[in-house]
């Protein structure tokens, strides 16, 4: 009598369940790593955006404040017209015509207003125009002494859809080369 052995190849139900359990643990670990990496990337992007906002705002203010007092003919009275903790107005005779005009960026005001860094050209005149430069500003401080102005700017950005908040604060000192001591 010849009996043929019934060789069946494949997995038993127990082997299949063990393999699926191991695979689910591996997938959970990969998913957890992906979520963690995504959150870290989002935090880094938000941090970079906050720092860039602060740097751009400081750079723009510094350029205008450096020109304060520029008066080549000595007749315009260019200076730092307003110097308060949260507001500064600078004047400069940029077109060298001897007067502060309502054009040519000769009267510029920076201030914190409703969480925004505002730049106002020709404040107090018929030509006044205001624009928001940076949003989410939480602090803006000017300290004027002699021929230098120290500017401190703080920006707060929220990560993603309402997670944690990133706050970045930078300070710079601007020397007004055109102001007499």
TrEMBL record:
GO terms for biological process: protein secretion by the type II secretion system. It is a single-pass membrane protein. It is found in: Cell inner membrane. This is Type IV pili assembly protein PilW. The chain crosses the membrane at residues 12-34. Its main location: membrane. It comes from Desulfotignum phosphitoxidans DSM 13687. GO terms for cellular component: plasma membrane. Keywords: Cell inner membrane, Cell membrane, Membrane, Methylation, Transmembrane, Transmembrane helix.
């Amino acid at each position: 009598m010849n009996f043929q052995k019934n060789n069946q190849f494949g997995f038993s139900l127990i082997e299949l369940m063990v393999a699926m359990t191991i695979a689910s643990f591996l997938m959970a670990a990969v998913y957890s790593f992906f979520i963690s990496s995504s959150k870290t990337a989002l935090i880094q992007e938000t941090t970079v955006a906050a720092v860039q906002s602060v740097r751009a705002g400081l750079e723009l203010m510094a350029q205008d404040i450096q020109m304060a007092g520029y008066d080549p003919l000595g007749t315009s009275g260019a200076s730092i017209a307003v110097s308060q903790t949260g507001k500064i107005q600078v004047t400069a005779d940029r077109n060298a015509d001897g007067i502060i005009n309502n054009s040519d960026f000769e009267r510029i005001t920076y201030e914190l207003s409703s969480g925004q860094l505002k730049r106002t050209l020709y404040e107090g005149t018929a030509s006044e125009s205001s624009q928001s430069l940076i949003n989410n500003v939480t602090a803006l401080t000017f300290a004027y002494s002699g021929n230098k102005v120290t500017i401190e700017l703080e920006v707060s950005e929220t990560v993603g859809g309402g997670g944690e908040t990133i706050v970045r604060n930078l300070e710079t000192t601007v020397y007004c080369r055109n102001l007499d001591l």
